[in-house]
Each structure stands twice: as C-alpha cells, then as structure tokens.
Amino acid sequence: MEENGEIRPWDEMIPEALELIFNELSLQEKLNVIPIVCKPWGKVVAERVWKDIDIIEWGKLRNHDDRDRMLQMLINRSTSSLRKLCAYEISGNLMFSFIADQLIQRVYLHFIFTSASNLETLWLPRGQMTTSIVEQVAWKLSTVTNMDLSYCEILAPALEAIGRNCKSLKELHRVMYPPSYGIYGNSEEETRVIATTMTKLRHLELSYMFLSSECAHEILSSCLQLEFFDVRGCYEADFDEGLLKEKYSKISILRTPPRIIYQQVASTSQPRFYEDIDWEFSSR
User: Fold this and answer.
1) How far is CA 270 from CA 20, 181, 214, 254, 260, in A?
2) Where along the chain do its domains lie?
C-alpha cells in the first residue's frame, strides 16, 4: 500500500479495514482463506472476524457430527472474543457429558461457556440440551441480551434459570411446533416464568406456546420495555382490544387472524401455513 509517497507493508493494514474485508467472505471462503494469511492478519482475524459465528443455515444441511466438529473448530478460533453464536440443533450428548462428568477436555460446550464473558447473542434453535444442564450453566450467560431457544425441549425451570441469571436479556425467541404435530407440549408455567423473570424484554416471540389470556396480560404488564410481541398460534390468548389501545398502544402484537384461527379449530388435519398471510398487528 502507498501512503504519502511511501509504501506501507500489507501486514500493517488497520484492523478495522481487515475486519470489514473478511466479513464479506462466506463461511467456506473464510475457512479456506484465513488459515493461509500472514501472522499479523491471523491475529486480527482471531480477535475480530470469528467473534460472530452463525452456522444455522449451514448446519441445516449437515449431520450431528459435522455440526459438532465445525462448532468446536470455530469457537476455538474465536479465542475469548466470542460475541455472537448461532448454531442449529447442537448435540445434547456432548453437552450433557461435559457437565455431568466435569470434563476438562475441550469439547465445544466448554468452549461456549468459557468464552461467554463477551457473549451477547446466543441462538440454539432445536438444541438438544436438557433442562438440568441449562439450569447448571445459565449463570455463565449473564452477558447475553439476545437468545433463541425455539423448538428446544426444555421446561420451565430452565427458562427460570435463564431469566434469573441473564438480567440483560432484551430479546427472546421461543417458537414451538403446532400442537397437532405432537412433537413437544409446553405448559403455562413456562410463560408465567417469562412474565416474572424476564421483565426487561423488548422483543418476545412465543408462537405456538401455551399462552392463556391471563399470562399474556401478565407479560404485557410486567415487561414495561416490550416493543414487539409475537403470539401467532397462541389460540388460548384472548386480548381485550380496548385494554390494548388504552395501556399497550406502543407495543406491536403479531397475532393469528381470526379467520385462520377458525380454520385451525374447525379442521381435523394439520394446520395450514400460508406464506402470504397478512398477519394482524395490534397497536402501533
């Protein structure tokens, strides 16, 4: 590089510029290119590029072993700078064995939670962790502000542990399967826990969770900073339109339209899903 008539070595490129360049690469390109860069660049990459790991879409096309190996490798490369971790259907067996046997080996659960001091975003949809494991390690996730536990077969005690330890949590995704799928049933206790322990939420998605009218209003009255509330498929929740306009006019509430609810109740088959549905927003 040339600056004021002088040639500057490439290894002196400012870290911010390198970060922007490498973040434009795909996951496969990063894996192929980064290992062969010079040491100064490699140091920048370790500190900056691997701090955000998102392999959800990649993981949907792989098996458990491939996902486990990739996650372990990427977290290892992130050193202690991990800020965002999004992974699909992580293996519950490795996680459980690490916690239960108190291993010191560098399996990827160890990486996740020893690197969690800077972690802000943790998305683990369809993760196969158990309730007891979440209860044991939730205290290590105190810095997390954005969490996705959709389709995870964990119970209310796990959510309670997260709520009591993740005091900075602002966004929670807890989307579940429609009841007719018969895959996993959730209880009203889970939504009550959210209302009592996650009062700083601004964004909450509870599609197909069991949500009574009482619990819905508990959440609305407890989470004073709430801006977005997704309750599609929560057919038990009946909202008082007058109360919504009077007390919660600043909250966007995404609901299943009445005509769709009627179709779900009247039909004996599995729910129909429409990509072009005009979902109903209340307030705002």
Assistant:
1) 46, 7, 27, 22, 13
2) 1-51, 55-139+153-161, 170-284
